Amino acid sequence: xxxxxxxxxxxxxxxDGVTFVIDEQLxxxxxxxxxxxxxxxxxSGFSITSSLSGGSCGGSCCGC
Length: 64
Prior knowledge:
By secondary structure, this protein is mainly β. The chain has one helix spanning 24-30; strands at residues 10-15, 18-23, 33-40, 43-50, 55-58. β4 and β5 form a beta hairpin. The longest helix has 7 residues, at 24-30. It is globular and about 40 Å long.
């Protein structure tokens, strides 16, 4: 996960005032995908879950 400018071939979503940009080919591989911001006793960060992978990863993961 990184900060990036949207390109013509990207999928762009907005949720609660936050804009998400994802490469269309990657999106097709992981959809459906859920991105949540969570806070635990270990800190805060993003939780990325794809129902296809059956798992989740956080932070800067891109191989979900």
